[in-house]
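Morning!

This is the sequence you dropped in the shared folder:
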Amino acid sequence: MSALRLRVDTPERAGLDPGELQHLVQEVRGLTVGDRPWAPGVVVVAGRGPVIAVREAAGWAVRYTAYDATTDRGVEPEPAARVPMTLDTPFDLASLTKLFTAVATLQQIERGTLGLDAPVGAVLPEFRAVARRGVTVRQLLTHTSGLRPELPLYDCRDAAARLALLRAEVPTTPAGRYRYSDLNMLLLQFLLERITGRGLDVLIHQGITRPLGMTATRFGPCPGAAATEDQRRPWAKADRGMLRGVVHDENAWALGGVAGHAGLFSTGGDLAVFCRTLLAGGQYGPARILGPDIVTLLLTPPGLGFAVDQRWFMGELAGRGAAGHTGFTGTSLVLDPATDTFLVLLANTVHPRRRPPDNTPRARAATHLSQATHT
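The structure's back. Tokens below.
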């Protein structure tokens, strides 16, 4: 696998079928069309090896000023006031943040400052219930700690109350059973900050985004980002109004915008670099953020922070070791070591308000990329 930097070139130069990729682009454009589109705006970046073969932006970064609950529609401004989507538009990554937390954790494991099977209580003894259960770093990364999906930190009166709620949380399912939980990544954040003496935002900047040249990837606020939700109860957990450039996730917001499970903003181009780095065994150009053996561990089933072979959003890329993740705001990425391909699909599907997720477009885009490799 090459560690060459990405370049934009033709599908043919990437060893991909141009007709199949054209179908991908046409479908992505169609996702933003109509009165009730899948998403107001979308960015897709896809490629193989060091070649970016697809770069497309469609629709609107800001299409609505509010959500009208009486008509169940977004309130649209004059057309001139809309903000078009561009390839450089940052998105609220939501749970794609977890991938960066996972990489930051593996960096500490590689350096010997943390053990993959080390008990979390050895570093964070004040998290007494987790310590008593013997929860390990591996269990946090694989969502097998037994912790419930989330806690209402957004309803706590202050930082002390939020911390007390987290520390008192007792795992509610047996260790070893998969149960996806934001709390796993929050505990990893506390653990990383304890052993390094640095904030998670600093660790990700110094250890991942700066060496890789991912200058558009950072925790918010992020002016110019694609808008997300007119966040109000009862459909949301807080009353914050139309959000743009501030984290959508209510718990990440309550924690000041920097959290192990959500809070990062990024662009399609930056995430392509992240994907390429992992496909190249942890190296991009002269920068190395992980060794190849630990990257293999990161991406091998069941995955450490990464989901592996999930057909519901990976389509036909699933089944041969593809890895990736989705984010609640409409973001996703997939990388497939078997074909050295990657797909970044970013959308503001929660604009102007959240709806039950429809992952069919993600799976279809991934299937088009898979079929494009059959050349």
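Headline: The longest strand covers residues 51-62.

More detail when I'm at my desk.
O.
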